[in-house]
Amino acid sequence: MNPVWVRTFTFIGLVAVGMLAVRVLSDWTTAFAFVAVTLTLRYLRDAIHLRNLSRWSRQELGATLPRSSGAWEELYAQLYHRGRARQREHAELTAALVSFRGAAQALPDGVVTLNAQNQIVWCNPQAEQHLNLSLAKDIGQNIVNLVRAPDFLDYISRGEWDKPVQLRMRHPGQRAERVLSLHLLTYGFSQKLLLSRDITRFEKLETTRRDFVANVSHELKTPLTVLAGFLETIAESDVTIAQRTQYMALMREQAERMKHLVDDLLTLSALEATTGPREDTVDTDALFARIEETARQLSNGEHAISFDIEPGIAVLGSEVELRSAFTNLVTNAIRYTPEHGRIDVRWHRHDDGGASLVVTDTGIGIQAQHLPRLTERFYRVDRGRSRQSGGTGLGLAIVKHVLTRHQGALAITSEVGSGSRFAATLPSGRIVDRVTSDDVEADSGERHGVPAGEAVTAE
Ligand code: ADP
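That is the input. Now the predicted structure with adenosine-5'-diphosphate docked in place:
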């Protein structure tokens, strides 16, 4: 039997026995008076315990139990254990919530939890940044009052959230526009999770890719159209031998143009396919001797060209890449300098151990507004002139790429009508003294076995 009932019946039994005992010793009035006093005392005791219980229940969970005995003691003990269990559950839930919020804060994406009415319950710092929110100020606010972009309002009201929506946003004080991807997910009872991701970089890459494909197609289309046109003309029977020879020469020119473009595209794609350059020891004496030969051939005696090359310098890097970049700068100077102009090529070491190739010309020059964009793919100041001189619009993009891979930099200064100066600088970490075969012979013999021109001494 339940101990409460045992106690109750025991009490009633004891009161009845007490009443009968009093009756035996006295009369019925005294016996009833005894019962009334006993019940009143019992009632008062319970009232005191109820008051203590009420006070105790208002205190924090785990507060010290009031002094008690009997059934009240048992009741207090049960309540106390329940309270402790609650306390443990509460602590566990708090720890889980703290760890969940910690994880959500570490996420690179923004997270906003919304209730059924789209009011903000919580958000992480990334979401604050993406959506220009402040958790402290905006908690409880409706998200549609804070993110006012029409596309978002449309998205949230539509109720179909299987795909994210893209928004372009610029918050006050921000210079650049951001592209965000916002995705709503529902959980629980109409609660929502709003995920935000900054996709500005991906968007830019996608635009670059699209522009690149469009540019390549455009660049190939022109010579292909010309080729197709000539082929059709040649196919006609009334073309003379002289005309045919002339057309063939023009077709060869167009084919050459396409070949240059494909070569440059392959160079760019090879640069992008690897994370860093080969680590050859490039003998720059030999490298510039070859570049000078190419330059003089291209100029065909139409320019005054000078090469001032500091001997004995070697570069740690890719010979193919460096040759391509340096040749581009020198041939550009020739292509954009009219007949009788001057081109000075200087390769020298700096005091800080680095080295620079400086190509100065007295050519057509470049307007200041074009300078920051010259190294973009297919960017040309004058499309017609570039094409006419066999340009692809990829040369300086390759130069910039190669220099960046070698931790170098390109500086351009120019004045329209006076000429340009292109300076390609490599840092000291890439430059070493080249040991010539003479040095090797003069050496005490420690370097035997090292092929001439390849041995290097670190800085
Ligand atoms: P391109 O194949 O058209 O020469 P580049 O990437 O090498 O392409 O150069 C980009 C543009 O920079 C050129 O179209 C030209 O307008 C300009 N440019 C490059 N070098 C010179 C120079 N030395 N003098 C004047 N303009 C130059």
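The first strand starts at residue 110 and ends at 114.
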